[in-house]
Fold these 3 entries.
Entry 1:
Amino acid sequence: MAAVSVFPSSRELGPALARIVTEAAAEAAHGEGGRFSLGLSGGSLVELLARELPPALSAAPAAADPARWLVAFCDERLVPPEHPESTCGAYRAQLLPRLPPPGPRVLSVTPGLGPAAAARDYGEQLRGAFPGQEVPVFDLLVLGVGPDGHTCSLFPGHPLLQEQDEIVAALKDSPKPPAARVTLTLPVLNAARSVLVVAAGASKAPVLKRILEGKEEPPLPAALVRPRSGRLRWLLDEAAAAELSIPTEKHSGV
Ligand SMILES: O=C1O[C@H](COP(=O)(O)O)[C@@H](O)[C@H](O)[C@H]1O
């Protein structure tokens, strides 16, 4: 069963998330190659990470230096980078300038391509960044979850949930706008060394009960995230966790 940590609000959840990221970065720095590969989702996570990661880094050991990081995005909406819905654009505006220079190496979806070409190109970038790995093994993926149970751009009932061959897939029919997107596939999510799923707010409470306690068939997309490493942790605020009856780890603060 996944570990579920519950914080009073995102004021306490945010620093805990940032601390987990910096600790994972420092740990990876001692591993082979010294690189920390981090996959980031978009949506509400951008603001949370932009607020919490820079101060956490200033208190972190030198080994957590973002210059050692490879950052990629777990999904992307196919809009121009300056569009408010662009995940990469949001991170470039809100988080990346606040990291100590020179900052991480960032892989992003090439703007201006159609969905299939964008997915192919992004898949090639990832393969180049993870040489010798059939499926890229990220040190850490930070995922969000929507009120419908989607994670990345993997939506309930969508055929992409069956994708086993591609590491990045395209969709033109996302039920949540914008419709055209690319997303990491489940084989990549489940190959990661460690996965965090972050959810805050009362709008997520009903779906979290379904994901974490329901035995739904077919499972919702976020319930299909089961990394083979076994290192899966959910970080929730109390509002999001309000309907859960499984045991959770309660945190009062940082
Ligand atoms: O559309 C998306 O939604 C999910 C969840 O977003 P949130 O704002 O409810 O946290 C996000 O993780 C994903 O990256 C994004 O493209």
Note: The pocket of LXAUTJHC is lined by residues 41-45, 75, 144, 146, 152-153, 176 (CB under 6 Å).
Entry 2:
Amino acid sequence: MLKRRIVTLITVLFILCGGLWAWGSLPQAKAFKGGGDTATVELDGQTAGGLEKNGTAYIPVDEVGKALGRNVSKKDGKYLIQSRLDRILKKGVIRVGTTGDYRPFTYYDPESKTYEGYDIDAAKRLGKDLGVKVEFVKTSWPTLMEDLRHNKFDIAMGGISRSLDREKKAHFSKPYIDFGKSPLIRKEDKDKYKSLSDIDQPDVTIGVNPGGTNEKFVKEHIKQAKVKVVQDNLDIPKMVAEGKVDVMITDSVEARYYASRDPRLYAALTDHTFTKSQKGYLMHRGDPDFQNWIDLWVAEMKLQGEFDKLEAKWLE
Ligand SMILES: O=C(O)C(=O)C[C@]1(C(=O)O)C=C[C@@H](O)C=C1
């Protein structure tokens, strides 16, 4: 009887020591929250859970991978956190964030419940070239960076301006189109607005959508004119045409698009834009394999004249 008890005790001790050894060998990360025997870390806006021991968190590497939107594999005794590219290929889906409010790049049609536009076609082509399905995820200009950080999508596409500010928090692909900020006005005002100072007058009202580079430009450069913030970007060109606001300062590409479709509108100064900028696709930081693939894809699209075809279809 005593012998059996001693054997059981030794077995229990043995299992306990093994468990502690396995626990201790889990990869580490600093905990910011949690206590007792659970811990949580935040990685790129996602949380991963594990155990805490003496102020150190032990987070299973699978959890880390999940939080980063990446797969984890084990080879030659080493854990490998794979690129997002491998995960996309394995899952057979790429999640593309897009705002759906910026013609001609991205437009969500509430009736057909589908997206269309230059970058929607580009995203579909991207899916085809990757050999995966495309799942569009709605985002917005004010929440774009947060939605990316929270891993709501793998890449954002839809007339996004490359900017040094955004590159501090995310990563842009190589550019695929050049443009600049310019005014969309009523045709009858063609001779009235010939420069930014003609526009920045107390009797002028500028319509602007929140959260993007249009608003940033207006905040930085407009001192005297009235500014009306319009939640739905798609409403602004019509508001200009109907005289509800006088000017929309936006990307020259968009100004041209609306002016060529509505005879009441005029795209001014598109050859002398207020700024010079480029569009790019927005990705997470720290994943060179995925970023390189996307850059090569952008280069191939240019080389094969695919962006030219999209321009002919959507921008002319
Ligand atoms: O923020 C950006 O990157 C954009 O280029 C998007 C942006 C904007 O500047 O607000 C550009 C033009 C459209 O009218 C709406 C959105």
Note: The radius of gyration is 26 Å.
Entry 3:
Amino acid sequence: MAPQRRGATKTPEGNGGAERRRPSSTKKDQAPREAQRTWLRTAGLGASLMLATFLLWNSLRVDDGVAEVLAHRSEVLVGRFIEVPCSEDYNSHRRFEGCTPRKCGRGVSDVVITREEAERIRGIAEKGLSLGGSDGGASILDLHSGALSVGKHFVNLYRYFGDKIQNIFSEEDFQLYRDVRRKVQLTIAEAFGISSSSLYLTKPTFFSRINSTEAQTAHDEYWHAHVDKVTYGSFDYTSLLYLSDYLEDFGGGRFVFMEEGANKTVEPKAGRVSFFTSGSENLHRVEKVRWGTRYAITIAFSCNPDHGIADPAFP
Ligand SMILES: O=C(O)CCC(=O)C(=O)O
Ligand SMILES: [Fe+2]
């Protein structure tokens, strides 16, 4: 749109001549017309803004069904816990009284793991994953089994590097993993009113690195809604320790508990621990990462000692 000219006669270029030929309109006549045009422009702009806002809001709603934020990135949660009724999933597995969930729910805490610990543990993920990485958007490193995404497959780091693995990971790295695992285990036990010693670390336990690269294989499709007890079998309690910050390090990638009409999101941030009972009372998914890189670690526990694994250690 051409800019409005008040004194057309003063401007030699453009359509100043045409304006000069207009019937002798006085300043008095022009004022209401000018006001009308300004008003129309403002109204048009306002309507466009409202339409754009509505479309954006609607697309987010349709995309995610997001209704509520359970843990906002700016909050520092000492311990938020929401109880939800247990599903019947646990009945089709052997029960371990005092451990198998009778109280179900989900919790988030920002005080279990310090930011400094999260940064150090992220360092382990970075150096391990720098040795490989999926061709698609989602890579994992499993310190217990040694599995590492490479291209469209996985390799066993421990087999591949043999003794040289000691040049990559240090004893402090494994000690840090153990400390983090122990603190998360205590937090889960306390929140669900069970004894920490009734919980067994179970597999898989893995670091994940997600970026916005297009998926190449089914392993890259991390965003599907799922139930951990169905996906992983041995899981009774799942925990996620986030190692990077939503909207600082990456966009998209929020964790979503899926509930009819009222999904609940957890916005990741370094050091935030999210934990929940692994049955279908906690159906969930991860939003697609739109930009940047998202690091997290999945640490899960079983009530069944037969499904227990030792802490990751040098092979
Ligand atoms: O990374 C996350 O936030 C969730 C990952 C997840 O759902 C899983 O590992 O089962
Ligand atoms: Fe999951």
Note: The CA atoms of residues 136 and 215 lie 4 Å apart.
